[in-house]
């Protein structure tokens, strides 16, 4: 379920103070770093030090909930300076002018208008080119065992479509060596459960040339000495993931970690996507030659090899840095050796717009490793780029209708799709997407999940215009409007979440079925709490998911808050994952005239400094603190003595991170610290990630409050 959607309707009365901020202003709120250093070691937290810290950490917050800027001391039109963007744009402009590339530069805004490459249209046209002999044996793609052919050539019947639309899926479980517990589900019968390949021979994977020879070289950085004796080209994780990808089933993998396996996974799905595109294009080019050489009057119905529009693969990633890495992987996979470099159009411009200057980042920022891994490089979250691939050439900035692969952020694709009633909107290019890859899905929960839902509503619809397609070449599955039943969706996330699960379960219709990795956490992040702290988990009752929002608020106001109103319970931080809940609580605290301060993702730098200073000195009893602020900034908040988790954190490691902030509090040995957590039966996944599966089962069965004491030795 979309929790934010529920909350927006439930809380309309409480949001009277919420100011509407234009999407344009939010869009400009991309990363602005300052050369000033940050120090959090000093006990004396002066306002000037905190101002430096905030100045150095203007995170990329452009895409978060539209229309949620705050009034008062919080952000109205807090747009970062645009000088750096202007400088970068000017450097890029001079580069591209030297290359003779067409650019449209608007000095008033300091940004370059969206560029598309119109010069190379005929070179990359699928309709007018033919297969080069050395590009691969097209007949090899006709083997019955070829997964691409098997998947795309399968002709579904009306009764099968009806069955998929009406009947529930049947599921079975399987245990794989590396992935763990898998749930296979499908509506159509007789779908065998896959078995994990212990070893993979690259030649048996039906990879298109040149991937057979380039993949082992490109992927060798991930291979340890342990892997090499059994398998020369895949890590154990990649082997099992690719086995599922290559079967064209949908896949949900919720254990992606930017620090450990993120790049391994990126390489695996790039291999699969590129293999798919090369095979699809080879089929078209081969059929072009057959049509050219055919005798007049010959029936050509067997040359149906295309969709209604050209884009086949859509990759959704959170930041420009991710797009940069993907393009580098694709180029590496196409280059057989140093002598056979591929021709890449607009490469210099791409590097300028998607790359980053290492010197821009302050060297002294002290942040957790996972933060550094997620926010590496250019973290602008508004972009989209078309990529066309034809044999040994790649065209960046291809117009969408001439692209094979589209790489975009949720915000970038949302601004093209537009909203109902807008004059300028387009989503026809999504009509024939055959592989949808959503990487780092958890980050979109911190940006704006509505953009992902909006995309899912507009993918694989019949186009409103023909866009010059040759209908005699279009597959029947596309003409029947059955594209969504053939689309493979690959979903990667760092965590399990009801909203992500909902997209996978309700928006993916692949006829081959789905595979979800469903491992349960045994210990939970509470074991990483290093301070001696009593944890009280207080259960609230609710009749439905929709009613949890109001039930939690009433429970907090009636049962929890009264215990903390006494002045002795000062230095209380209230951690609030949802922005809507934060607004509701802030309005209630103002109405009740409570002594509090508040920090959210839209709070100005100076206001953040003031709030932190008031809180550490005890001038304000309560600090309302949003999860998104913590996600984008990761400051250590000093002065906490009492913690209230209004709801369990989205990221389980945030629980131990926030709890461990208490060790930064003065006189910690003498203080009596408390930690209170609100939860309901609908929080099972988040609860298990914090306390482990065994404790979760006990807590959900019992209706009593649960007291846990962490000694700091766990």
From TrEMBL:
Principal place of residence: nucleus
Start-end of Polar residues biased regions: 88-104
Keyword field contains Repressor: no
Subcellular location: Nucleus, Nucleolus
Basic and acidic residues bias (residue ranges): 1-10, 77-86, 295-306
GO biological process, one term: maturation of SSU-rRNA from tricistronic rRNA transcript (SSU-rRNA, 5.8S rRNA, LSU-rRNA)
Entries under InterPro entries matching the protein: P-loop_NTPase, UTP25, UTP25_C, UTP25_NTPase-like
Highest rank taxon of the organism: Eukaryota
Alphabetically ordered keywords of this record: Developmental protein, Nucleus, Phosphoprotein
Domain UTP25 NTP hydrolase-like: 248-515
Location of the UTP25 C-terminal domain: 525-709
Extent of Acidic residues compositional bias: 37-58
Renumbered residue ranges of the record's region Disordered: 1-109, 286-306
Sample GO molecular function, one term: U3 snoRNA binding
GO cellular component: small-subunit processome
Assembly behavior: Interacts with CAPN3; the interaction is required for CAPN3 translocation to the nucleolus.
Entry's family note: Belongs to the UTP25 family.
Function: Component of the ribosomal small subunit processome for the biogenesis of ribosomes, functions in pre-ribosomal RNA (pre-rRNA) processing. Essential for embryonic development in part through the regulation of p53 pathway. Controls the expansion growth of digestive organs and liver. Also involved in the sympathetic neuronal development. Mediates, with CAPN3, the proteasome-independent degradation of p53/TP53.
Protein name as annotated: U3 small nucleolar RNA-associated protein 25 homolog
The species this protein was found in: Oxylabes madagascariensis (white-throated Oxylabes)
Gene: Diexf
């Amino acid at each position: 379920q979309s929790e934010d959607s529920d909350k927006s309707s439930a809380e309309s009365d409480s949001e009277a103070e919420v100011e509407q901020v234009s999407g344009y202003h939010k869009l400009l709120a991309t990363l602005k770093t300052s050369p000033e250093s940050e120090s959090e070691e000093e006990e004396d937290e002066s306002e000037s030090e905190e101002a430096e810290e905030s100045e150095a950490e203007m995170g990329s917050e452009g895409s978060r909930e539209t229309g949620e800027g705050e009034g008062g001391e919080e952000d109205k039109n807090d747009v970062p300076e645009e000088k750096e963007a202007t400088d970068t744009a000017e450097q890029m402009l001079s580069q591209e002018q030297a290359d003779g590339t067409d650019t449209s530069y608007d000095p008033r805004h300091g940004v370059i208008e969206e560029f598309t490459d119109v010069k190379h249209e005929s070179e990359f046209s699928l309709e007018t080119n033919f297969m080069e002999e050395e590009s691969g044996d097209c007949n090899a793609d006709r083997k019955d065992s070829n997964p691409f052919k098997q998947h795309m050539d399968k002709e579904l019947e009306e009764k099968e479509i009806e069955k998929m639309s009406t009947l529930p899926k049947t599921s079975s479980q399987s245990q794989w060596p590396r992935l763990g517990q898998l749930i296979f589900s499908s509506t159509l019968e007789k779908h065998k459960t896959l078995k994990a390949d212990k070893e993979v021979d690259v030649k048996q994977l039906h990879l298109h040339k040149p991937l057979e020879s380039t993949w082992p070289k490109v992927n060798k950085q991930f291979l340890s000495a342990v892997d090499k004796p059994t398998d020369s080209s895949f890590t154990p994780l990649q082997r099992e993931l690719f086995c599922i990808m290559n079967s064209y089933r949908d896949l949900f993998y919720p254990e992606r970690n930017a620090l450990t396996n993120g790049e391994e996974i990126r390489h695996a799905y790039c291999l699969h996507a590129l293999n798919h595109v090369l095979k699809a294009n080879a089929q078209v080019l081969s059929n072009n030659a057959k049509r050219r050489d055919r005798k007049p009057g010959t029936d050509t119905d067997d040359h149906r090899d295309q969709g209604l529009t050209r884009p086949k693969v859509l990759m959704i990633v959170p930041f420009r840095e991710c797009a940069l890495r993907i393009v580098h992987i694709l180029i590496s996979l196409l280059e057989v050796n140093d002598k056979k470099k591929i021709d890449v159009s607009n490469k210099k411009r791409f590097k300028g717009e998607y790359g980053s200057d290492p010197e821009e980042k302050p060297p002294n920022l002290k942040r957790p490793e996972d933060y550094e891994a997620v926010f590496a490089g250019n973290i602008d979250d508004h972009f989209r780029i078309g990529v066309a691939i034809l044999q040994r050439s790649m065209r960046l900035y291809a117009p969408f209708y001439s692209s094979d692969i589209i790489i975009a952020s949720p915000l970038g694709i949302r601004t093209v799709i537009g909203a109902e009633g807008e004059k300028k909107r387009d989503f026809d290019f999504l009509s024939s997407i055959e592989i949808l890859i959503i990487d780092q899905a958890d980050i979109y929960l911190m940006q704006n999940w509505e953009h992902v839902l909006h995309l899912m509503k507009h993918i694989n619809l019949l186009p409103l215009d023909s866009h010059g397609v040759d209908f005699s070449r279009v597959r029947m599955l596309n003409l029947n409007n059955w594209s969504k039943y053939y689309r493979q969706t690959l979903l990667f996330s760092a965590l399990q979440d009801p909203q992500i699960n909902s997209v996978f379960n309700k928006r993916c219709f692949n006829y081959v079925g789905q595979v979800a990795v469903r491992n349960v956490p045994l210990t939970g992040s509470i074991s990483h709490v290093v301070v001696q702290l009593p944890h009280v988990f207080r259960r609230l009752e609710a009749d439905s998911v929709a009613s949890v929002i109001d039930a939690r608020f009433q429970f907090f106001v009636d049962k929890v808050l009264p215990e903390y109103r006494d002045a002795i319970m000062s230095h209380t931080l209230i951690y609030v994952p949802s922005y809507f809940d934060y607004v509701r609580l802030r309005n209630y605290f103002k109405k009740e005239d409570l002594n509090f301060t508040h920090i959210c993702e839209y709070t100005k730098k100076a206001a953040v400094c003031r709030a932190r200073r008031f809180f550490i000195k005890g001038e304000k009893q309560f600090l309302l603190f949003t999860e998104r602020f913590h996600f984008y900034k990761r400051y250590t908040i000093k002065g906490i003595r009492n913690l209230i988790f209004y709801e369990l954190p989205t990221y389980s490691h945030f629980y131990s991170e926030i709890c461990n902030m208490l060790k930064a509090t003065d006189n910690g040995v003498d203080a009596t610290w408390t930690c209170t957590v609100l939860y309901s039966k609908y929080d099972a996944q988040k609860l298990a990630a914090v306390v482990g599966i065994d404790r979760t089962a006990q807590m959900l069965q019992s209706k009593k409050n649960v007291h846990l004491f962490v000694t700091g030795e766990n």
